[in-house]
Amino acid sequence: MLAVSDYRVGYGQSEVLHNLNFSIKPREIVAVMGRNGMGKTTLMKSLMGIIPSMSGSIKLEDKEMASLKSYQRVESGFGFVPQGRMIFSTMTVRENIETGLTTTRRRSVPSELYDLFPVLFEMQKRRGGNLSGGQQQQLAIARALASDPKLLLLDEPTEGIQPSIIRDIGRTLKLIRDQRGLSIIVSEQVLSFALDIADRILVIEKGEIVHQEERANVDEAKIASYLSV
After folding, report:
1. pLDDT over 80 at 215, yes or no
2. Which of 52, 88, 103, 186 is the most buried (most CB within 10 A)?
3. What residue numbers bound the domain in which 36 lies?
4. Collapsing DSSP states into helix, strand and coil, what is residue 187?
5. pTM
6. What DSSP designation does 62 have?
7. Contact present, 125 and 93 (Cβ < 8 Å)
8. Is pLDDT above 90 for 5?
9. In a domain? residue 195
C-alpha cells in the first residue's frame, strides 16, 4: 500500500529524519513509537506534505507522492488526523465532517460515518469546540474518513484522552480497517494502546528507525526501554 524509500526530511539545513525505509501492507495497522522529539510528528506531517521532504520516495499503490501538495495527497488517498485534533471549533459537527467531503462528489455526510460514531450523529448540530476531547478525536477521525482514504495517518491520537475513550478509539480503528479495508499508521507513545491495535510496531529514535517487530512476536520490555526517558 505504502512504500517509503531513502526518505530524508529537515528544517532548513537541519536534517531531522535520516534515510528512512519502510513499507505498509494493505489492511495493516502500524504503530510508530518513540519518545517526544524523536521525529514521529515530523514523519506524519511530511507524509502528508505539510513539511517538504529533502529527498527520497513516497509511493501509495506505486504512485509517487513526494512532489505532491497536501490536498493532492488527500485526493490520491491519504487521510490525516493531526496531533491535537485541530477541528474547527466554531463550526458544527456536521460542518466539520463536510470539510472532508471536498475530494468526493458527496454533498452530505454518509450515514456509515455516523454509524461508526453515533455520538457525532447525536451532536451533529453542536459546535465542535463544545465537544469533549474524546468526542473531538472521533470528529477528527470522521472528517479524515469523509475523503474515502486508502491510508489513514493518526498523529498521537491518545494525547489528552481518558483511558476508557482510548479503548473505544482502539476498537473503532480496528473496525474501520476491517470494514473499509484501509491501512493505518499511528504515531504513539502509549505502549498499551499500540499493542492493542497494531499488527506491527516501528520504533523511531533520533530520526531513524531503530527497531521493528510484528505484534505476535513483540518484546514489550525492549520497546518500553526505547520509550523510557
Report:
1. yes
2. 186
3. 29-52+68-227
4. strand
5. 0.89
6. T
7. yes
8. yes
9. yes
**58 torsion bin: left (phi>0), alpha (psi -120 to 50), beta (else):** beta
Distances (CA, A) of 174 to 105, 166, 167, 196, 213: 26, 13, 11, 9, 19
pLDDT tens track for 195-211: 989 999 999 988 899 88
pLDDT in tens, 117-160: 999 999 899 998 888 888 898 999 999 999 989 999 999 888 88
In this structure, how many other beta carbons lie within 10 angstroms of the beta carbon of residue 66? 18
- CATH number reported for the structural domain that contains residue 160 in this entry: 3.40.50.300
pLDDT digits (tens, 9 = 90+) for 45-66: 999 999 989 999 999 998 999 9
CB 161 within 8 A of CB 134: yes
Total of domains in the chain: 1
Does residue 136 belong to any structural domain of this protein? yes
Q: How far is the C-alpha of 38 from the C-alpha of 60, rounded, in Å?
A: 24
Confirm whether 158 is domain-assigned. yes
45's grid cell: 506531517
CA distances from 90 to 85, 113, 129, 130, 134 (A): 14, 21, 6, 9, 17
- 98 part of a folded domain: yes
